[in-house]
Each structure stands twice: as structure tokens, then as C-alpha cells.
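Chain X:
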Amino acid sequence: MTRNPLIAAFIILSLSSASYAVKFPRENGITVTGDSFRVGEFASVSCNFIKFKQENINKIEWSISYDGVSTNAFVSHWENANKETINSEYFTIDESSSGEKVVRIRLNDDREDEITICCKVESIRDSGYGMIKAHEKEKCTAVPVESVLISETIQQSKVALIVNNDLVRIGETVRYTCNLDQLRDRGMSFSVLVNNKEMETRPIYRHEDKQLTSSFTITEDIFYEGQGEKFFIVCILKKGEYEISRDTVTVKRDRSSQQIFPTHTQLGADIQTPRKGRFYADPQSHRDHGNVPCHSYIIIEEGSTQGTLIRGELPIDIQGSIKAFVSADSRYETHEDVVNVLNILGYNGYRVVGMGNNLLNRLTWTLERPYFEFHPNAFKNY
């Protein structure tokens, strides 16, 4: 027994810290929906750890072991919600519905009668005395695997995905078609995913249902949810929850120039340099407004990867003053930094009237350019 009180206190604190680290219950530390895996169907696996109030979870690592092979499958980072997914020929992780304590796993074949699932929890605990200590706790469990009887004839079914364009800009429309080669069973269905999010499902009852055609409009969020400069469309053929066939198309962002903007010299000597703000000040451009004052509004938004987005109509000369410009349906995109874009618009008579954040927490600005000073009769009746 030690006689040094400092050493004794340190030992007590260390033992106390260890006793209050992450724990697993004796039973059901890991649970699987249905208590087994059915080949070809997704199952939810839960890591049922217990954490204490002073603890912060850093991450949870999932691993799968079978036939002498052990491999990482999924990592969930709690602080920033980032995810790391490792798929293989044997198993598939549904990243979009996995996170924190739960991972969605599908086994793709019946090579094993049983697999072992492990979840390892990393945590950090503050003892309250300025001592920060990291802890790890792992729990493993064996899960039986059940085969799903799908006839060889049905498994021969193949699906093909066709898109009208795999190089697109913001605001354009992508039209896709899922084609089934042959109707071999009336219990099958189509499922279309964009970036692992289900867009559409439809059962296949008749030969006329062998083709599914639909479309959607490209938004910045689709690239944001994908990989910045590309996203993925997937067509899956299913029998119940069993996946029979899939086809994937990668769609990339088109950064090429859509149109060539004329300079102010090409437009004519009467058109002044945009930075002088003369275009909006020309009364002849607004002579048909009558006694009603007019205002022009646009919204500026930070891009997901770089550059700036502009929503709303812009005069042609202002468009030409913004470099590397792309436009589609009153939605414009440029590599220019958002501050440079705001300065250019400020030189052309726009002023900020509102500022905020969108759902993706990107900064947005509402800009106004008034024309009412060129309509002197507008306020006579006020």
C-alpha cells in the first residue's frame, strides 16, 4: 500500500475514470433487425453502448469478419457527422441511412452461414480535474445468414440505365430511362437513386412496365451531395428487398462557357462600360414603365466548392463583366469569388438589402437595383 497521497489520488482517479467509460450491456450489445441477415436484403445493425454524461463520443468503427477475413465496413464520426464507407463484392453499406449507432448492411451472396459484426466505440472523458483521457470499447457478435430463394431465371434479369446527357449545368434537366431486358417475374420493381437517395420506385406488372422514364432538374445541392463536380444516378431491379441487378451512370458538371458575351465596344459606342453603372441609368431602357416604379432583385449565393451562384435576370453587359460565366434559366454560375461578384454588381448600381444563410448554411445576399429615380411622376399621387 502506497504512503504517497498524490500517487494514491492518481490511482483512485484512474480507476474511477476507467469504471465510468463507455460500456456495453451483457446481452444485446449489438442487435440486428430480424436477428439474422437475409442475402440481398438490407438489415439495420445497432451498437447499443452506454455512455456517461462526462463522455464525448469521437467515432464508431464497424467491421465484418468471415472465413478468416476481417475488414472495416463503416466509420461514423459524431462531431462533424462525416462518414467513411467501405463496400465489397460480399457486402454493401447504405451510407445515406447509416450513422451514429446504426449501420445498414446488405450481404450480396450466401458464401457464409454466419458472420461476425463488431462495433468499436472511441470516446473522450473529462475527469473534472483537468484530466482528458481517451477510451476504446469494442463489442462483437455472431449473426446467422439466411439464403433467399430467387430462381436462376429471375437472377438472369438485367437492367440498363440511359440518360440524355452526362455533362450538365445547373438548371438543366436530366432525363433518365431504366430498361428491363425481359419480364421474367411479375413481382419485380424499379428503384431509382440519386446520390444514394431514393428518387422513385415503381412495380413491374406488365410488359409495358419494363421501361421507367422520368426527369429532374439539376441543382447545386445535387452536386453538393455527390462529389462536388459529379453525382450518381442508379437504377436497381428488385424482387421484394432482394437486389437482382443495377446500373449506374456518373453525371459530371459542365464548366465550359455556354455563350460568348460581346464587349461594350461590339455592342456599340452608346453602351458604356458596365462598371460605370450607366446601363441601368438609361431612361430609354425603362420608358414603358409608366407611373409605376420598378426594382430589379437578384440573389447571390456562395458555391458549394468554389465560385458564386446568381439567381435572377442580369443585363447582358453585366453578364459580360463576370469572368468564366455560365447561365441557364436565370441562374448563373461563375468561378469568380463572391466578394468580386458583389463588387462588380455594386459598381453597376446594385445594393445589398438582405443577408442570411440557406439550408446548407451557405451565405446568401439579396441585392436590389432601383429604377424609380428615372420616373419623376411616380410619386405625385403618394
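Chain Y:
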Amino acid sequence: MAEGASDGEADNTSGLQEPTWTRRWERWAHLALVLGGVAVAVAVAWVLGPGAQWWLVHVDGVKVGGNGGLQGKELADALDTIRGRALTMGTGLLAAVAIYYTAGNATSARRTAQAAMEGVEAARRSAEATEAAQLRTFELTQQGQRQSEEAQRRTLALTEQGQRTDRFTAAVAQLGDSSQAVRLGGVHALAGLADDSPTAEFRQTCIDVLCSFLRMPYDSDPGDKPAEGQDPAQHTTALKHYRARREVRHTVIRIIGNHLRDGASVSWQGHDLDFTDVVFDGGDFHGAVFAASNISFRDARFVSGKVNFEGAEFEADAVDFRGARFEGGIVDFSLARFGGGTVLFSLAQIENCVIYFNSARFEGGTVEFNLVGFRGGTVHFNLARFRGGTVKFGGSVFAENGTVNFEEAVFEGSTVSLGGIGLIGGALNFGGAGFEGGTVQFDGARLTSGTVNFEGTTFGNGIVDFSSAGFGGATIEFAGSTGRRPPGLPNDLAPHLS
């Protein structure tokens, strides 16, 4: 490597020395030409003067003066010839010097131009190198900035995640506090966390915790007055505790309902809701849109107050009320729309509760009341429109004044199945209903006692079928009804229908 370096240094030295020797040679050549030019000029000046006769005698060998020598005009002409020759020679030499200087200047100009071009090329390469270095520096700066921003984002995400975890832990702890006021703060904190959640999964977690709070054991209403033998002070304490806790629970239901409505600032539509085993003594779900894959009210208890589903839309795969017990109060589905999926009330017990489906729209899907016990409760489908889908009451029992009203309902395309029901003291009321399409089936029904009322009903293009129904002691009224006579009726029923 040292040897190579020495060679490189020698080459560089030669490259540097060569222009130096050239310049020295040029200076010596210029000096020689100058001196030669001066000498020629002096010689020419001398020949043009007194030296002409010397040149004539000693160089040309011409005799001057005396016998046989040039004299007078001949001598003058000879001297003029000598001077002309000298002048011609001097002029030629001066022209040669001029040509040399011109060539030298041209060479110098060419070298200057070449040096300028080389300078421009060097400047261009330097500019390109500078630009490349700047570009690389910019790229490295951008890369570093991106890495810094990514690191900041990760740090921010971890910080926010840690903050969410801390907030979540604190909110859950508040829900478990003995103070109802602290619990209320925890409810709002969890709702805020759900709204701020960056992912649907974490929002679902917050919703699950709120629903699980509703599933916690809940003491029943102690009533406005002490029970017989109960200490009044103890009753007062129990009543205050009940009302405070009820306020917290109703707040949870209200918050969930608010987030299920169209136009909510943050929508919880599409999230699962698990109200299994929840005790409802009121709650507001009016206008809610149930669109998730799993909405469960299974085995819930509706004991008092009003649970409001007015104007709600049921578009979920399944809304499950199976096994629910409607023991008191009001559950209102008026103006609700059932557009798809399945709403299951099978195996429910309706005792002293009133359920409204007034003016509801059944446009698709299935609503099942199979094997429901109607014992003293009432379900109203007044003014409801059945345009599609299926409503099933298969195997249900209507007893102890349990009633289902379809007054002025319009059946346009749905199938309402009452196959296999048992009417034992209950009532089915279709007064003023219009059967314009679809089917109402009583096949296999056991109409033992109670009332089936079709007063003022219009039997149009729809089908009401009593085939294989068992007519015991139930009262079946067709007064004021018009249209086609339903098949399967005993001969003595509705003879006025065609």
C-alpha cells in the first residue's frame, strides 16, 4: 500500500511539475525572442545607417571609391539595395516574431479556455456532489423525523393505553363502592371511556361492565309504607337505599338507550348487550336501534314501572326475551319496527304486566311467543301492521284472563300462527281487524273456555284457518264481521259470512 501511495504521489508531482517546466521554457523562449528582436532591430538600424557601406564592402565584397570602385550614383544605388535587403530581412523577422506571439497568445487563450472549461466541469461535479450530499442529508433527516414521529406515536399510544387502563380500573372500582353517588360517577366514567375508545373491542368491554352492573343482585322495592311489623326507621333506610340504587341503574339504562339512537354523538349500535337476569323496574330504550348480533333479555324480570321501547327498531340477528317474566308494570313496544332477525319471547311468563305493540310494524323476521303463559297479563297489538315475517304463539296458554288484543290490526302479508294454543279463560281479540293478506292459523288450537272475538272484522284476501281446531266451551264472536268465512269453523259459527 505504501508503494502504491508513493507511485500516486509521484504521478501527482509529475502532473504538477509539467506545467511549471512548460511555463519556464516559454519564459526563456520569450526572452530569447525579445533579445533576438532587439538585436535584429539594432542590426537593421545599423545597416540602414552607416553600416550599409560596411556590409557592401565586407559582406558583399564590393569595392567602393578609388579606381574601379563604386562612386556617386552607383554607390548610392548599391547602398539603397543593401538597405532594402536589410529592411526586408528585418520586416520578415518582425513578422515571424509577430506570428510567434500571435500563436503564443492563441495557445494561451486555448489553455485559458480549457482551464475555464475544466473549472466549469469541476464546479459542475462539485455542485452535483453537494446536491447529492444535501439530498442524502435531507433523506436521512426525513427518515430520522419519521422514526422520531413513529416513536412519539408509540409513546403516545402506550401513554394513552396506560391512561385508559387507569381510568377503567378507577371506574370499575367506583361501581363497586358502597356509596351510590360514587357508583353514579363510575357509570359516567365508564360511558366516557366507551365514547373515547379507539377500538370497538374496548368499547364493548366498557358496555359489558355496565350491563354486568345491572345483572348484580337487586333488592325489590320495599314499598311506600312499612310492612306489617317492620320498624319505620328501618323501612325509611331501605327505601332511601332502594331509590338511590334505582337511580344509578336507570342512569345506566338511559345512557345505553341514548347511545343506541340515531343521531347519538357516539353510537353504540352494533354492540352486543347482555341483560340476562336483569331486574327492570323502569328504563328508557325509546327510539333505540338494536342491530347487534346478540341482544339478550333472557330470564329478565320486568317487575314495575315502565320499560319504554317505543319507536325502537329491531334489526339484530336475535333479540332474546326467552324465559323473561313480566310480573308487573308496562313494557311498551308501540311504534316499534321489526324489520328482520328474530325476537324471541318463547317460554316467557306474562302475569300482571301490560305489553304494548300498538301501531308496531312487522315487516320481516320472526317474533315468537311460543309456549308463553298468559296469566292475567295483556299484550296489545292494536293498530299494528303485519306486512311480512311471522308471529308465532304456538303452544301458548291463555288463562286467568290473559289477553292478546289485535284490535284494528291490519294483516297484509305476515303469518300469525296460533297453532296448538290453549285458551282456558283467556281472550283473543281481533275486533275491527282487517285480513287483507297473509295468514292467521288456529290449527290444533284448543279453545276450551274464554273468548275469541272477531267482531267487526273484515276477512278479505287473507286467510284465517281454524282447521283441526278444537272448539270446547270458548265463546267465538263474529258479529258485524264481513268477507269470506274462515275454513274449519263449526257450521253454526258465522253463517252470515260467504
